[in-house]
Input
Amino acid sequence: MTDAKRTATLNIEGKELELPIYSPSAGPDVLDITKLYAQGKVFTYDPGFTSTASCDSTITFIDGGEGKLQYRGYSIEDLAEKSHYLEVCYLLLYGDLPSKEQQTEFEDRITGHTLLHDQMQHLFRGFRRDAHPMSIMCGVVGALSAFYHDSTDITDINQRELASIRMIAKIPTIAAHAYKYSIGQPFVCPRNDLDYASNFLRMCFAVPTEKYEVNPVLAKAMDRIFTLHADHEQNASTSTVRLAGSSGANPFACIAAGIACLWGPAHGGANEAALQMLHEIGTVDRIPEFVARAKDKNDPFRLMGFGHRVYKNFDPRAKVMKESADEVLELLGIEDNETLKVAKELERIALEDEYFIEKKLYPNVDFYSGIILSAMGFPTSMFTPVFALSRTVGWISQWKEMITDPKLKIGRPRQLYTGAVDRVYTDVENRLPTEKYLKFNGGS
Ligand code: SDX
Output
């Protein structure tokens, strides 16, 4: 971030304020309003943070107009094609691509931390079998701080590093155990002779009674899905991790908060909702009915997997994901996959429709991912856990950047208050029923 050379003049009822303007290495300039309230006694108002930069960062850059996504300056297309997930983890964590030796040392370190404390298995067993795997991931990740006290002191660089390694190493084991628990199969331990994606697939799909060979093409597709979801600037769940971390909460608690936020259907939960929507549409001839519903202001239905706060052009991850979907389905011999046919036709129709063009709605990362994950054998309930697994390195990298930022302050937004003020208290005998009280039908 360059020092402010330019300023913007804000005139508030005759009082002029000079607000610094900073120029980034890429993307829009920012207006520094940190002194606005102190000098101008006004807040800015930006529900949903549509025009607000919450921090400066060197990790991920998105150009929504160009459909560009870069991790530490490397394009997502290059990384998806030429790199692999643990190398991308190193890049996001430390800022540069590793040398061969650094890569080996880092990957060995991750491999050495994939097991969970044996006592943690009882945590899983406390859930109902039909618990959504995301509820289990929220709970178990939050509980990591109860087992790994020696990596919760955020003021100690070594503990921060150990927590980062443990989080990235253990999240596949936690996600796989959540899946196994939900289908009543025994947990499968990680193996140190397998790469990260193969290990995860084996922990999900191997059973003790049979030999399990990981299909290398599926492992590559899995690894690419991890890379495509690894980080994405200041999205809702990353902002949640940053806000939780700004209070000094331990890293495991912060990641658990990020998982909880990601679960929502407007965010990471959209991959599960998108596949359910494609299944509900069922056949190509029913697409117009659903497109009409998505355009109907009176219908809350939205095309899940479409639209994005930042991308007002294609989501580059969706393009790579679509190519992967073709590859994986062809490999698996699932040629006439009706769901993929519906997805492609829905994309074609939507992209030609005036409503979607005018509102700049394109398929996002969640539109095709479910088709691949489903073809690989995952139930829809495991789609968002896979997203959470992939994004853990992004959350950890952003958390580390925030914790070491000399400008770190606890995040504490203000508000535009529109409620009552200065009301006089009356005794209950003198009060009338409040019209806002909600009478629950049949409830007490
Ligand atoms: C992710 O932020 C990130 O980077 C997130 C993410 C990441 O990697 O971390 O990229 C991952 O969360 C991807 C998005 C997954 N969510 C979905 O696919 C759910 C469906 N899409 C949306 O609900 C919506 O598009 C959002 C939440 C993604 C973005 O919402 P915005 O930016 O707040 O936009 P909006 O809701 O104000 O919509 C703008 C207009 C509205 O119409 P008007 O009120 O202006 O008339 O577009 C319409 C919306 O009704 N619209 C849609 C739509 N998405 C927006 N209409 C139909 N179908 C949709 N999917």
